[in-house]
Design goal:
alpha+beta; Lipovitellin-phosvitin complex, beta-sheet shell regions; 14-stranded antiparallel β-sheet; about 30% strand
């Protein structure tokens, strides 16, 4: 049995942090609260000793209603009514209490409209409780189908949090505070949370069997960090406020109301954030006799209003990203290199789209350093490396910064062996827009993908980067998995599908600039072009340029129709 903290007289312990849990764990914080110690000139009521000891044969009805406002899904409601029977415990310890919960009614809704869900009617849940109201074992269940059993197990995992009210083993007076030891519990598939609860007795009212204790609780809940890849970690936490009413005679919780606010964040090496989302929720639990009914569809649906200005800004950002997204069905090295250095590309009013696979050659600004497919070479070693690169003979894409002196480009072209077709990466001229650049961390990941030993490894690294950016938007992640897990049909339209789902989740759920850079590397970039540079024709173009000409001056010298460039 978990250890109990000592009772503290006369003050209230305050804790607040961040929380993110699956929708079915909302019962976790039914007992969470913030409180203040009331002051009164009347004599203090006598102390109360809280013990959970419902009488065997006792029956009552519990009603649970949860509303969750989650990014991408809107308001969802889970509501259940249970018939509860207190049974004689099958144990030597007579202080334990065995409770059997039978689902009597259920109600599921999305945005205020009822939806179908697995029928849990008649499902049995069994639990053993200690005298301090601690749950002594996992709830077990009996369901009519596998689907109902899975849904019931999800509820049972969440209900364990909802029952996290534990009484101290000494009498309590109004204003007394206590805490229990932190514990780590499973809150969903591959998710666990560490809970640090504290409680305060706010008031005692009534006489005899009608005495009721009002308890406030603060529960700090920290999501156990989940490491995805590449130093990407999912973290979370939250705050809750509310109160609960406990019958002093037997420790049964009569009613609880809670307002929850929590978030989840995806971080990289403690350097930057890949996504952030906020949740709001309300939870209400009430006990009645066996004839009592609660309208499971009642109460307001809107928890937190959305900001229309933020929604418009998000939509505009996503529309711009969709216009720039490419539609290539395979990741190519040229588009990966262009994603790394988007603002270095010279602009042209014409050129061919990048359609063929090939090697990429990055020209250093000083003309003395080259990178072939992400690997650095000295000038003297470059010709041999090009001869040994099969993909270079298919096509060799050069990235020369637009402000590089054209003579340095010429010196690089002289190192390229015959039979290799050099093509200069350029960007289609148009309205000047701010092109996203990769962050330091993302640049590291893209460069690692560029230098990968095979196209398969490159694909895997880029796919994981995309998943890292989509982990907080389930709809976008599902769209990606549906396409990539099958015959890859619809891959060309995947960028638009992802961005459409992000419009529902909200732009905070991902680092949109990082996502767009990653999609440019995976799917291409609508503005990316390639300009053929046959050396003889290149030499002729040099004669008409001043000695200080740059690469940008060179591409502008091609005729507007682009005929020379494509011959």
């Amino acid at each position: 049995m978990p250890g109990r903290g000592c009772v503290t007289k006369g003050y209230v312990l305050r804790l607040s942090l961040l929380l993110s849990v699956p929708c079915w764990t909302l019962g976790a914080l039914v007992v969470s609260a913030c409180s203040s110690v009331p002051t009164s000139k009347s004599p203090d009521p006598p102390a109360v000793m809280l013990r959970f000891k419902p009488s065997p044969g006792q029956r009552f009805r519990e009603h649970w209603v949860y509303d969750l406002d989650a990014p991408g899904s809107g308001i969802e409601r889970w509501a259940y009514s249970f018939d509860v029977a207190v049974q004689k415990p099958d144990t030597q310890n007579t202080q334990h209490s065995a409770l059997r919960y039978v689902v009597r009614r259920q109600y599921r809704a999305h945005l205020g409209r009822a939806i179908t869900a697995p029928d849990l009617s008649g499902t049995h849940l069994n639990a053993m409780w200690g005298p301090d109201h601690s749950l002594l074992s996992d709830m077990n269940m009996e369901a009519r189908s596998g689907e109902a059993s899975a849904d019931a197990r999800a509820f049972a995992a969440g209900a364990r949090f909802g029952m996290l009210v534990e009484y101290p083993d000494q009498p309590l007076s109004v204003g007394d505070s206590w805490s229990i030891e932190p514990r780590t519990l499973t809150v969903g598939p591959a998710l666990a949370a560490t809970l640090r609860p504290s409680y305060t007795l706010e008031s005692i009212s009534g006489q005899g069997e009608q005495r009721v204790a009002v308890i406030a609780a603060d529960i700090q809940v920290d999501l156990v960090p989940e490491v995805l890849s590449n130093g990407v970690v999912v973290e979370g936490g939250g705050t809750a406020s509310g109160s609960l009413r406990v019958r002093a005679s037997d420790g049964v919780v009569l009613e609880s109301r809670t307002v929850l606010h929590f978030n989840q964040e995806v971080r990289v090496q403690s350097m930057e954030t890949l996504g952030y989302r906020e949740f709001s929720a309300t939870a209400h639990v009430v006990i009645s006799d066996l004839q009592g009914q609660v309208d499971l569809a009642a109460d307001p649906w809107r928890i937190e209003p959305t900001d229309p200005d933020e929604e418009r800004a998000c939509a505009a950002q996503l529309d711009a990203a969709a216009e720039r997204a490419g539609h290539l069905t395979t990741p190519l090295q040229p588009q990966l290199l262009a994603a790394l250095y988007p603002d270095a590309l010279p602009t042209v009013p014409f050129a061919q789209s990048v359609e063929e696979a090939g090697s990429v050659l990055l020209l250093g600004a000083d003309g003395k350093r080259f990178e072939l497919d992400g690997v650095a070479y000295e000038p003297k070693d470059l010709p041999r490396a090009l001869r040994n690169a099969p993909s270079a003979r298919n096509a060799l894409y050069l990235l020369a910064p637009y402000d590089m002196p054209v003579e340095r480009l010429r010196a690089a072209l002289l190192l390229i062996p015959g039979g290799v077709s050099p093509r200069l990466l350029v960007r289609a001229a148009g309205d000047e827009v701010s092109i996203p650049r990769p962050s330091r961390w993302l640049e590291e990941q893209l460069r690692a993908a560029l230098a990968a030993g095979s196209s398969t490894d490159r694909q895997l690294l880029l796919n994981q980067l995309l998943v890292d950016h989509l982990v907080l938007c389930e709809g976008a992640l599902d769209s990606y998995r549906r396409v990539t897990s099958g015959a890859r049909a619809g891959l060309a339209d995947l960028p638009e599908r992802i961005l459409s789902e992000l419009a529902r989740c909200g732009c905070t759920t991902t680092n949109l600039d990082g996502l767009e850079v990653t999609m440019h590397a995976l799917f291409g970039w609508s503005e990316l072009r390639a300009l053929r540079l046959p050396f003889p024709r290149f030499e002729r173009r040099l004669h008409g340029l001043p000695p200080t000409a740059t690469v940008q001056d060179l591409v502008r010298s091609w005729d507007a129709a682009g005929q020379d460039a494509q011959e």
